[in-house]
Structure formats: C-alpha cells, structure tokens
Backbone:
C-alpha cells in the first residue's frame, strides 16, 4: 500500500512512517522545518519527504491512504485536496490502533510527564526478556534504532503479542478531537501523573482528567490500571475504572510500595513491595525520584506479563535513556552540555533535582526556551520561577511565536527574570522579537560566554530547536 504522511516530521508520525515502510508499505511524507534527530532517522530509513505542503506534489505520490498529522488544520493545501477528492484518510493514532496493535495485548503509558521514558523502559524490559514486543515511542529510544515497530509475527500470533504505546493525551487530528491514547485500547494502562498542560486544546485541569477517565474506562475487566497513588489528579482519573486498579506509591498503603529509596551520584536504589510482600530490590543509573517512579511503573506492568524481578533488573542494567533525556551532547569551554526535553514546570523542577544528584557540587546554568502552547502563555508565570531552584544562572529564550497572544496573556520573560533574581538566581532573557531569527541561539551563546565557567553544567531545556543552540555548542 502507498501511504503518504502529511506532517511526517513529528516524532510519533515519523516513527510510524518508518515502521510502515519496514512492514513493506511504500511511504512518502511532507512537512516543514524537520530537524534532527527525526530528519536523520527518516533519511536513514530511505523515506522520501518534501518540504512544505503541495497538492501537486501529493498527487504525484498517488497514495492509497493518507495519514493526517494532528498539527494539520483546514487550509493546508494537501488536506484541502484530500477532502475535495475524497481520498482515503486516517490519523496516525487510528493507523497504529488498527494496523499495529489490533488484537495484541496493549500496554499504554499515560501521564503529563515521563511517557517517553516509561514506555521505553517497559519496552526494553520485555525486549531484554526475549518477548519481542511491538512499540510506539514518541522520541528516539536509546535501546532501539526506531521509535515504532510492529509485533514480531514470527514469534507471536496477533492475539498473543504485546504492543507498548506512549499514550499521548493530545488530540488525534482535526477531524477527531479525542486524545490519541483512546485509539490504543489498553489492556494495561499506566497513569503516571496528571497536571494541566496543552493549553491550546484543554480548557482546564478538569477537561484533562475527563480525557484520562475516557481511556481508563475502556480497559477491560481482565486488564489492569496502574496509577500513581501519590498524585491526586491521577487518582481522580481512575475512580470510575471497570478494570482492577493497582496503586503505586511511596506512601504507607498500596499494591506496589517503593521503600528504602536512596538517591546518589551513581544513580538510585530502592526496594519494591507487592501487597506488602518483598518483590525485589532494584537499581538504576538514572538520577531522580521521578526515574524511580518510571521504572517502578514499568516493573509493575511487565510483572503482569510474567517477567521476574531478576529479568527486570537485568533490563534496567542495560537500559539507555531516549534522546534528549538528560543526554550529554557536548563539552563547551570545559562545561558539560546536557540536553533535556523538560518544558513544563514540574518536569523542569524534576530535571533540576536530577542534575544536582548526578553532578553534585557543580554550578548549573539552565537555558530554557518557552515554546510549548502552555509555557508561552501566562498560565505558569509564577510556577516557572520556582522550578529553577538549584540553578546558578538561567537564560530564558524568546517566547515562541509571541504574536499569537495578547501581551497580558503571554509569558512575561522580564517578570520571570525579576522573580528568579529574587530567589538568588542570576537570570537573563532574550527579547521576544528575536524569535523571528531561526539562529537566535547565538544570543544565548553570548550570554553563556559571560555566565558559564569551566566545570559548569549547561542544561538545555526545551521541546524545540532552541534557536539552533545545541548545534552551536556542539560545533564549537
């Protein structure tokens, strides 16, 4: 079948496109401004894509089915042609649900934070135990060359394989406003945490909880919902589950209890109790309490499928974090440059704690780009000031596409600088008009030359390209 992906540059879209090509389909795509690592991965897979959107170029592909990315909206010339000529179309999530998951056991990892890492850990524990799962991970996982892979049908029938999905709560497509994870029909659902995010599609926290309730309510009674019992919002989302709910906690009561936790420079160790009976002792080189929670969710999910504590620890020993998750990418003027996807206040705070654990005694200089549809607005104006505790200095990039919002609705970076200064953190902001220059990262380099010293840790925090900053630091 000839598949054309409109918006192929998204991490999930690109990964599904690669998996489709590996399954024997002829795959093409279109998008704007695709940058590494996705551009490199697509090229390595031999997938042809063109820059921009063109009905003429789409016609030349003669697709049998068009996969519409969730960033594509009415007015896009390819979409308008598809609608006018009634070409068969589907969403990325719809394609995955019907083509890759189908009747397999479906593990869906949900949560505001940690989805990519937790789904990567879960997949690797199964892979290391020779279960050969299929998977969809919305990033570039460290243990695999691709972000999406079908179940190995040489080992499994379609009814006994396992497929692990990163369950994105973002909406599916312009024609389907349900969250993507609904299409994956979990047998085992992980609800790791839940906060307000995606301000462009969710009006408030209650609407996000409602979306999570929807995916929880389709878990079969023979399945299970694993929930972070220390997160009140996550707990609210599972109250109406028809499936059994198992609580994962650091508290005194729960089906899975994390005890004897130790966070050190070399990583973290903990003991896991299952129904108050010792299940196993575990260790990971990943820093941060959030990493322990991610690992424990993966352990609880794979235990349901018969993996032993010994198999799980062996998997953790060889697990490698996905790209852009506390990833050391360069040494710049004697500083260690760490790239991390953190862009929500809670995730930034967790990353800052993890950096302090991994690099004790070293100054941390954070470079943060307000890019997501939530952090570019004023929703987290006060929370952003508090999440950088532990940093010696913070450089705030320009608000991405500031023209979308009125001044009062937009993140005030100068006010954020003042709030950080009041907390004893040296802060600098790059003016918002600089966002028009795709190479505004050079402005950050100028500040780093004044703020950073040999031995410091430079943390690049963003879900975007940071004005080319990463490449500038790597090339220098």
Residues:
């Amino acid at each position: 079948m000839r598949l054309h992906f409109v918006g192929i540059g998204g991490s999930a879209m690109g990964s599904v496109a690669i998996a489709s090509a590996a399954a024997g389909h002829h795959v093409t795509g279109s998008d704007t401004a695709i940058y590494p690592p996705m551009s490199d991965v697509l090229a390595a897979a031999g997938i042809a894509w063109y820059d921009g959107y063109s009905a003429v170029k789409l016609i030349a592909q003669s697709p049998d089915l068009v996969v519409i990315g969730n960033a594509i909206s009415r007015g896009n010339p390819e979409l308008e042609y598809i609608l006018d000529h009634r070409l068969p179309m589907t969403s990325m999530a719809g394609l995955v649900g019907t083509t890759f998951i189908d009747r397999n056991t479906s593990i869906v990892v949900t949560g505001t934070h940690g989805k990519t890492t937790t789904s990567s850990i879960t997949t690797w524990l199964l892979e290391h135990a020779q279960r050969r799962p299929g998977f969809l991970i919305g990033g570039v996982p460290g243990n695999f060359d691709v972000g999406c892979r079908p179940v190995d049908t040489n080992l499994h029938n379609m009814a006994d394989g396992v497929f692990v999905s990163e369950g994105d709560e973002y909406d599916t497509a312009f024609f389907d406003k349900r969250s993507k994870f609904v299409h994956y029909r979990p047998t085992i659902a992980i609800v790791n945490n839940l906060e307000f995010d995606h301000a462009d599609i969710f009006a408030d926290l209650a609407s996000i909880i409602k979306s999570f309730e929807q995916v929880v309510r389709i878990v079969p009674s023979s399945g299970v919902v694993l929930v972070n019992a220390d997160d009140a919002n996550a707990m609210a989302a599972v109250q109406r589950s028809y499936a059994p709910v198992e609580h994962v906690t650091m508290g005194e009561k729960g089906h899975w209890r994390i005890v004897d936790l130790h966070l050190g420079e070399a990583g973290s160790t903990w003991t896991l109790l299952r129904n108050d009976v010792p299940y196993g002792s575990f260790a990971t080189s990943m820093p941060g309490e959030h990493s322990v929670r991610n690992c424990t969710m993966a352990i609880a999910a794979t235990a349901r499928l018969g993996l032993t504590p010994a198999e799980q620890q062996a998997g953790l020993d060889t697990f490698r974090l996905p790209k852009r998750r506390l990833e050391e990418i360069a040494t710049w003027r004697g500083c260690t440059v760490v790239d991390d996807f953190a862009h929500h206040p809670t995730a930034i705070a967790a990353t800052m704690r993890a950096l302090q654990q991994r690099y004790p005694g070293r100054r941390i200089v954070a470079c943060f780009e307000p890019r997501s549809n939530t952090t570019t607005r004023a929703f987290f104006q006060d929370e952003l000031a508090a999440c950088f505790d532990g940093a010696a200095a913070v450089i705030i990039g320009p608000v991405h596409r500031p023209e979308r919002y009125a001044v009062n609705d937009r993140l005030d970076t100068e006010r954020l600088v003042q709030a950080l200064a009041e907390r004893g953190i040296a802060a600098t902001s790059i003016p918002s008009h600089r966002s028009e220059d795709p190479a505004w990262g050079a402005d950050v380099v100028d500040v780093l030359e004044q703020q950073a010293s040999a031995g410091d840790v430079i943390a690049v925090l963003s879900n975007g390209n940071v004005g080319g900053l990463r490449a500038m630091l790597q090339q220098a």
Observations:
- The chain has a mean pLDDT of 91.
- The two ends are 45 Å apart (CA to CA).
- The CA atoms of residues 6 and 68 lie 5 Å apart.
